[in-house]
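Service request form, structural biology core

Requester: graduate student, group of Dr. S.
Request type: structure prediction, single chain
Budget code: on file
Notes: please return the result as structure tokens.

Sequence provided:
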Amino acid sequence: MVRVFKAEEKLSPDYIPSRLPHRDAEFRLLKTFFSGVISGSSTISTRVIVTGSVGTGKSALVKLFGATAEEEARRSGVNLRFLYVNCRISRSTFLILSRLIEQLRARIGARGFANEELLHRILNYLELKDIYAIIALDEVDLLISRGEDLLYLLSRIGEERERPPRISTILITRNPEIFDLLDESTRSSLLGNIIHLSEYDSGQLYDILKFRAEEALMPGVLLEESLRLIADLAGERGDARYALDILWRAGKYAEAESSRVIAPEHVRKAAASIYPAIRREHLEFLSQHERLILLALTRGLQGGQAYVTAADLYQNYQLVCEEYSAEPRAYTSFWEHLQRLDDLGIIRINVRSEGAKGRRSYVSLPGIPATILQAELESILRRRQL
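Core staff response, request fulfilled:
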């Protein structure tokens, strides 16, 4: 059998490479923000927010920084632990605190305690063992949208304890607007340091793919024209995760055909298999509100523009709900539906920095003409009203 892969796990979204091309500046900035924590000299709790669209390397950047910070602290004689929790998996304050206890391997009973008391038991443990912790909460928007109190509790630990705080935080989100849902005091304590990861262009994706291919594939397997084709295809989305997925799938197609190289045709097959054209049966399986949101998006794009802001889309969605006699969902639920549609590849959410105006989320429809999708959605919604 022809070998295409040398270590295919190195194309997995969960693999953290030894370096992240084109994220050096953001990596250095993280190290600067946490320099006092790493050296054990910090007297305040450091809080950083990392934002960016899907596939911009948010999680990989933070995880690589966490591993590096632990090692640098160890060399300085500081006992620093990097603790990572995905809020999509651990969806409540209690589950997150329990996950932190597991990672610390602390003998702390979690059952029977209120969240605030459990957090203070963790802090007591860190002080007893002389441990500093950097807690990374990924997809934190899901925690905020559920009204959980963890961020409030974390923002208050410095006020309630006499000793320097042992916990610093990194909050990772693709939707910076979600912090507007927090109360003013919590929001002001969190929004000091923000690192925004812009989307990759095709040239940057080329460098990332080349680096990862050298780790994951046998020498000479990936043709130059195939590499450039993947970079160009993924460059339309600015998404490194999508680019790596195409590369892995193209390798699998080559392997199945006993090809010694990954040819452009393998790349085209791979790209088509990941995000096929939206068909009617795909729309049938969406929830009613996902269809209403999509319909609102198609109408918002009728004027020829490429994007609609999430805020404008929400207003359009409310009008569409009124038209179809549906009760509009709250903005937090609306955003969760948007994320699911983005995860399915039906829409594209793009976060942009706009200087003094802050950051806004823009929504586009990359896979199908808006007029065609609008007609399909209106047909399905009318039929379901009968």
